[in-house]
Amino acid sequence: MSSQIYVPAANWLLMIATVVVVASFSDTSSLFNAFGFAAATVMFSTDVLLAVQMHVVRRWPIIIGVTYFLTFGFLDALFWGASFRKVPHGGWVPLVIGVVLTSLMGLWTWGKWLEDQFDGTNVMELPGFAVEQDRALAQLEQELTLADNASGEHYDFFVPHVSATASPEDMIGLSRVRGRGDRDAKFDNRELMRIPTCAVFHRYVAGRGFPHAFAGFVRQWPGVPQVLIFLSVNILATPNVPEHLRYIVSKLGSMEGFYLVTYQIGFRDSFDVKVDNLLPAIFSFEREHDPEYGHIAIERIKAVSGSFTHIVPHYHLKSKDVWGPSRGG
């Protein structure tokens, strides 16, 4: 059936685990108690999830979900409460399994949320980011745009585009990060050459701005690739997405060669970023975005598209200090 998730490996593991658990019971009465408690728990949890799904997914009025839960959930809650008497006599087995699996899934969800929160809060706009054109681009018009932020500070931006001047909205967004801390100050007054290559910076959270992996790249290298693609992944609630619809392209501000790309795949599609499919999506965007001068950007991209570099962020998790730093006597 369409839109139904089927993972063969999960089915095999479930079959093996079921056989092992059933074989581990010493008598049938304990097995019946475990099955009864598990069945009652499934019925009650299904009522809870259905009530939530009616309002959150189906967008039905909340009164429908509440009415359903009070009607059917009340009856199933009576059976579930009565089945707790079976916990000491074999019902503890599915209870322990459920607690362990729920804890693991909750821990993974919490860790993924922390990872996404880190990516979201560490998106940088890099104020004072100056880009110097190479000789091949020197013939293009370069416009120097001066941007003022709300505090009165000034930043200079070289916008290497034939006919584009950075909009006030872009400049405000680029300057706003100034108040986040001192870590961005080290980028002030740095002049970076454009490297004739393409780079794809993978990011876990979609949105505008530079991911923190790009900031680390700039600290290590005295240059910026000619074509920068900041790629985020969006898994849709559909089995498959056609290849020509997977890439959604937009510009990052007014700087030439900076692109935001969302890679959309279905839950049965394999993650495989193909340059041969990514570049045509960027070319199509350039033709629509700038019909008059888009062909110039396309030719520049083709000139450096022979080499592609993928930069994937990597995390080292550290636990917080429980007792705090020690103090000397």
Report on the structure:
The model is unreliable at 130-186 (pLDDT under 50). The chain has 329 residues and is of the alpha/beta class. It folds into two domains: 8-91, no CATH class; 122-311, no CATH class. It has helices spanning 8-24, 28-56, 62-83, 92-121, 168-176, 212-220, 275-289, 294-304; strands spanning 129-132, 143-148, 154-159, 190-203, 223-236, 247-251, 258-266, 308-311. Helix 2 packs parallel to helix 4 (92-121) and helix 7 (275-289) packs antiparallel against helix 8. The chain has eight helices and eight strands.
What are the salient characteristics of this protein?
single chain, 329 residues, alpha/beta, 2 domains, 8 helices, ion transport, transport
Short note summarizing the structure:
The protein has 329 residues and is α/β, with parallel strands linked by helices.
What gyration radius follows from the Cα positions, in whole Å? 28 Å
| Subunit organisation of the chains | single chain
> How many helices?
8
Whole-number count of domains: 2
Give the structural class. alpha/beta
Distance between the termini: 70 Å
Biggest β-sheet strands, sense, barrel: 6 strands, mixed
Provide the β-strand percentage band. Answer: 15-25%
Average per-residue pLDDT, rounded, comes to 75
The helix-strand sequence is HHHHEEEHEHEEEHHE
Low-pLDDT runs: 130-186
Number of strands: 8
Helix content: 40-55%
Q: How would you describe the shape? A: elongated
